[in-house]
Amino acid sequence: MSLENNSWGTATRALRSGHRRTAEREHAEPIFTTSSFVFESAAHAAECFTNETGAVNIYSRFTNPTVACFEERLAALEGGERGVATSSGMSAILAVCMAFLSQGDEIVCSRSVFGSTVSLFNKFVSKMGITTHFVELQDLAAWEAACTSKTRLFFVETPSNPLCEIADLAALAELAHSRKVKLVVDNCFCTPALQKPLELGADIVVHSATKYLDGQGRMVGGAVVGSEQDMAEVFGVVRTAGPCMSPFNAWVFLKGLETLKLRMEAHSANALQLATWLQEQPGVKAVHYAGLPTHPQHQLAAKQMRRFGGVLSFEMEKGREAAWKVIDATSMLSITANLGDAKTTITHPATTTHARVAPEARLAAGITDGLVRIAVGLEDIEDIQADLAQGLC
């Protein structure tokens, strides 16, 4: 039987939603490590294969009970009608593009997005005859000016990677819907524990489950959440093209969701303390974190986010040499481009996450050679500060 109750809060949904106990009466969610499912008869097989909704177990490329549990739980957390799991966050974005775009269509996208997202739109989605227009995240007039009769999707990250800029989701949704355009929001930095874009008017939410949904850097995966009608289109892409999530990965993500709310609160608390401390350190030109009262969009962030997340960036006055010095001087922090881990990670965006973006496009997005990004983990904040201080002196 289903254990879900629509009145449950975020923490309860993260622990309980989507699990349907089998005849074995298990307490924890089982892992269905099977490639296919057996039918009772030829007629039963034929009946199952005519079901296009994904509600019947046929083949684990597109129907698996463990994956379905993760999809349902994440959808419950985001307030969506349905979720579709994918093999990675980038495959989630690609599946959305394949589901809703055709040759000649256009995307309007914020300049302030993950470097691989820029590359996906410019180098690969463009091969399908689809044009992407990049605009300033905060400039609503620019979004409106870039929108044409061929525009089908608005795409935005908020907070942005790596400058923590904030999009006014309600305003963007209103503009999108007035033009019959779908608003797609990458909610990776916040997760539904801190921000629910669907409640603010977004049509579709995408995730790199690799990040905070896992929380310990163990697995790669992605997900899309939205209405039943929209997710049926995305499901069709995953069913046919196969960028699917494995049952074991889905089980690991389920375990990650159980502690999501607690972890995001702790990440946010550590990040705010670190951002405040960094503002006072020698050689630091600017700190980018929406939780700081000095952030230009602090009030908007406070309005649409429950807390401010665990990612921040800061700019060194003396450019790349100083930025690399800070990174190389650390002995505890992990020098890696991944984020959302319980362990603090540090990277130089211009030469890692956004290295494939053209230099002029990087600068237009505000990603300078002096910029350092930190995904603040769950270590003692004093130890994080001490490790960074080695390269800031």
Question: If you had to describe this structure to a student in words, what would you say it looks like?
Answer:
- The chain is α/β, with parallel strands linked by helices.
- It has two domains: 10-258, Aspartate Aminotransferase, domain 2 (3-Layer(aba) Sandwich), CATH 3.40.640; 260-392, Aspartate Aminotransferase, domain 1, CATH 3.90.1150.
- It has helices spanning 10-16, 42-49, 65-78, 89-100, 115-124, 140-146, 169-178, 228-241, 247-258, 260-278, 298-304, 319-329, 359-364, 381-392; strands spanning 82-86, 106-110, 131-135, 151-157, 182-186, 204-208, 222-226, 284-288, 311-316, 334-335, 345-347, 371-375.
- Helix 7 (169-178) links the parallel strand 4 (151-157) and strand 5.
- Helix 12 (319-329) packs across helix 14.
- It is globular and about 75 Å long.
Brief overview, please?
Belongs to the trans-sulfuration enzymes family. MetZ subfamily. This protein has 393 residues and is an alpha/beta fold.
SSE layout:
Elements: H1 10-16, H2 42-49, H3 65-78, E1 82-86, H4 89-100, E2 106-110, H5 115-124, E3 131-135, H6 140-146, E4 151-157, H7 169-178, E5 182-186, E6 204-208, E7 222-226, H8 228-241, H9 247-258, H10 260-278, E8 284-288, H11 298-304, E9 311-316, H12 319-329, E10 334-335, E11 345-347, H13 359-364, E12 371-375, H14 381-392
Parallel strand pairs: 2-3, 2-4, 4-5, 5-6, 10-11
Antiparallel strand pairs: 1-7, 6-7, 8-9, 9-12, 11-12
Helix pairs in contact: 1-3, 1-9, 3-9, 4-8, 12-14
